[in-house]
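ok so i was messing around last nite and threw this chain in just to see what happens. nothing serious, just curious
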Amino acid sequence: MKCLIAIVGPTAVGKSRLALYLAQHLGGEIVNADSRQVYRYMDIGTAKPSKEERAMVPHHLIDVVNPDETFSLAIYRQLAVQSISEIQQKGKVPLLVGGCGLYVWAVVEGWQIPAVPPNPELRRTLEQRAKEKGVDELFRELQQVDPAAATKIMPANLRRIIRALEVYLVSGEPISRGWRKTPPSFPILIVGLTLPRAELYRRIDARVDEMIKSGLVEEVKELLDRGYGLNLPAMSGIGYKQIGMYLQNIIGLEEAIQQIKWQTHRFARQQYAWFRPNDPRIHWFNGENSELRGNVVRLVEAFLSRESG
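result:
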């Protein structure tokens, strides 16, 4: 039977651990839906699965491109659909795992992404405007030309804002008009993990502290030494930007760490705009529940039994 299981929720909620357990239990394989884990050399700051974990269960769409290479939503969806099909053809269960709402819903809802190639000169112009006048000005422009896209893109996500404006300015068509949906023909089960806000923030802060201990500063320094500048979209992610500012003596290390924690708290709140607690498609579970794994396994097994019957 062809099917798909998606595991979604905010950062640091425990999606990867649950996915690893489920994949082992079901004989499944994991398809990454994190927008930063696709980049090579960015391991610590993206909380990428370890080599040991990837040896236990096959992972797809990790280390796909270098930090200075173009990677778009359209490219991601194409690769994800291809990976899911290959896993299904092997008779295994694909698990789509991650907190990037654009990536998850593009696959689950079958978005048809506009095929407008990147325009480097236009992007540089828009980036310069954002630097001079702020990201808010570009976001307000997006709200005017493509209000539907503006509701799907976080106001601080400069890369997505620029891409949406780029499509409109190049093609004359709003990017949202191209988001036609052709849902997959196979059944999909969506499992959502959530936590009380205080506990989620505690886990985020502990993860950031562990990243620093594990060598995040050294990882960013090595990326800069390789020639990957902080102006690259890949390097604009939370953690890399702040540590980069520290390495440039713009802020101190303690301030950089605190900014990473605050920005990640904010990001986690924004993720609930993509994965809404009242979305009937998502089966929500409390990540603190000691019976979490057993409850999810029962739900998944019932889903597989029902759909195969």
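not much to say yet. The chain has 13 helices and eight strands.
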